[in-house]
Amino acid sequence: MADNKWSSFKIAGDFDTDIRSLYEAWATTEGVERWFLRKANFYTVAGRIREPEEFILTEDTYEWYWHGWGDDAMEKGQILEANGTDTIKFTFSGGSVVTVYIHSRNGISVVDLTQENIPEEPDLSKNLYVQCQLGWTFYLANLKSVIEGGLDLRNKRVDLPSIFK
């Protein structure tokens, strides 16, 4: 069987901030709600909900909610790796896996995001390869704007349809 070239993608963004601030933006409830999610719940293995500024750990689970979508569009998943410094890996839509690696290149902080194990979808309107790549591109741009002192680019008005619907 031939490899499915639509089963993974990698995108990257550069950020004028330190690696620790970027890691906090991905690894805490408070962080991801600033630029990515309307609401995030991270749960410890024992089922305790993590505090807003508390770092996630490997084997935590999550419930995520987006602006522009109702609570029925919640995403549930598991943190597969959270090393406390530069790498976070989690399950995502359709059984795919997202890895976020934060590092420095030529004096600038870089976020490399890879999404793998994307399932084939015969209905092109539901193609996770395309939809997720569009979504992550927007959210990395929003992270850059928010973390570098700019505007939050998300549509938070529930009376306007989301651009991703």
Written account of the structure:
The protein has 165 residues and is of the alpha+beta class. The protein has one domain (9-147): Alpha-D-Glucose-1,6-Bisphosphate, Chain A, domain 4 (2-Layer Sandwich), CATH 3.30.530. 22% of the residues lie in helices and 29% in strands. The chain contains three helices and seven strands. It has a seven-stranded antiparallel sheet with strand order 1-7-6-5-4-3-2. The model has no long low-confidence stretch (mean pLDDT 92).
Distinctive features:
3 helices, 7-stranded antiparallel beta sheet, 165 residues, single chain, alpha+beta
Report the C-alpha radius of gyration, rounded: 16 Å
What is the highest CATH level, the class? Alpha Beta
Helix content: 10-25%
Placed side by side, the strands forming the largest sheet appear as 1-7-6-5-4-3-2
Discrete helix count: 3
Shape: globular
Oligomer: single chain
- Bin the strand percentage: 25-35%
Largest sheet: 7 strands, antiparallel
| Number of DSSP-assigned strands | 7
* Average pLDDT reading: 92
Order of helices and strands: EHHEEEEEEH
CATH architecture: 2-Layer Sandwich
- How many angstroms separate the termini? 34 Å
Please identify which CATH superfamily we are dealing with. START domain
What's the number of domains? 1
Structural class designation: alpha+beta
CATH topology: Alpha-D-Glucose-1,6-Bisphosphate, Chain A, domain 4
**Uncertain runs:** none
